[in-house]
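Sat 14:20. Reprocessing the chain from the morning session after the first attempt stalled halfway. Input below, unchanged.
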Amino acid sequence: MRIGEAAAAASMTTKALRFYEAEGLLPLPERAANGYREYGEETVGRLQFIRRGRGAGLNLAQIREILRLRDAGTAPCRHVVTLLGNELERLDAQIAELTALRATVASFHDAADAGDPNRCDADLICSYV
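Finished this time. Tokens:
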């Protein structure tokens, strides 16, 4: 299949497909006599994996490593468990930071909403922040 067909089958643009190819996440495609790239069904599966990996928060280096393991004939599942565990820890820390930030912003909002703008200290620019 040609590049447009492969990209459409993986729900991405041809630009994205070329980018992933340039990043070494896809093997170089065969070329038809006319010079057009020719992709097999395995490329679509690989592109779909890349999309799923990106959707799970994995970066391109992590995805590249998973693909390298698979291409070497090794099931990357244990490695993926580690990567996803690390991503969960990162997300949990980010959620905790956002929860704390939300509490701070809510406190400022409540104070500002209940406050009197006429009593605001000009030297502080805004007494509520």
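The chain is about 65% helix and 5% strand.
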